[in-house]
Amino acid sequence: MKKGLALTLFILLFFSFTTPTIVNSQDEMPGNCGDLIKAPFISNGQPFRAFLTGDEVAEFHTTFLNGSLYRLVACSGKNQPIIFSVYDTNRNLLFTNDEHNRASVWDFKIAGSVECIIEAKLDTKQATSGMALMYIGFKSLEEN
Length: 144
Known about the structure:
- The protein has one helix at 2-23; strands at 42-43, 48-53, 58-64, 68-76, 82-88, 93-96, 105-108, 114-122, 129-140.
- It is of the alpha+beta class.
- The chain is globular and about 45 Å long.
């Protein structure tokens, strides 16, 4: 009984320490993505991330509040372009970087507060798999 419990505990500890290093390898994590949110913007501190393969699309949900200027940053681990689109909850397209040379940074202000869906995917012509990261920064407009 004690051997079975010890073996189970060992296996759980082994995978808890090794699995995150495989999934979040340093080769997949860009060093400067978060650096694109700098003063006067403040990061919301919660990057969205998803490992994508093929035509997979990651979906992130967030709320943008009235009275702020936002910066949305998209990047990948190996500098592959991330195609992202922002929709309202009725799936009306608000923005897509695919129409703007796949820019990795978008600054915007939304009138009123709105819940949004952000979709991110890889350009399958350039990559078959990789990590997609999305950062959101904000700047209060009421200070000006």
